[in-house]
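Journal club prep, shared notes

We agreed each person brings one worked example of a sequence with its structure written out as tokens. Mine is Bet v I/Major latex protein domain-containing protein. I'm keeping it raw so we can talk through how to read the token line rather than staring at a rendered picture. Sequence first:
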Amino acid sequence: MGLHGKLIAAMEFKAGGDVFHELFRHNPHNVSNASPEKVQGCDLHEGQFGHVGTIICWRYTHDGKQQRGKEVIQAIDEEKKLIQFKMVEGDLLELYKSFIITSHVETKGDDIDLVTWTFEYEMLNEDVEHPISLLSYFIDLTKEMETHHLAKP
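Then the structure, token by token:
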């Protein structure tokens, strides 16, 4: 059947993995400052930014379409700089029965940080495509965040 899938992308992040993790954990509402064409907003729906169980709502543009997604933070690991979001409502759930997005920062050596995005999902049926364009979107978003933070004085 093949309805379950997992996609992973890792890329170097020159602006510092702590900056990246901090942004997504405590200040996701500021992601739109780094990439306003991709992310129009992130609103706190329930709880407190940076805590497991918190529900946040994203407004974003993907493949030229306005989208929205409500996610619950289901795991945080400060040591691994990991945060995991589970989609609970929104456009992605029109195609996927479940969708989990994990970001993880790994330090390689003194000045190399890798940002890894992992998507774990279950498609509603066999006609649904794997979310490769969404993974590409996240790669581009990460690059834009890096450029934004490197450009700061």
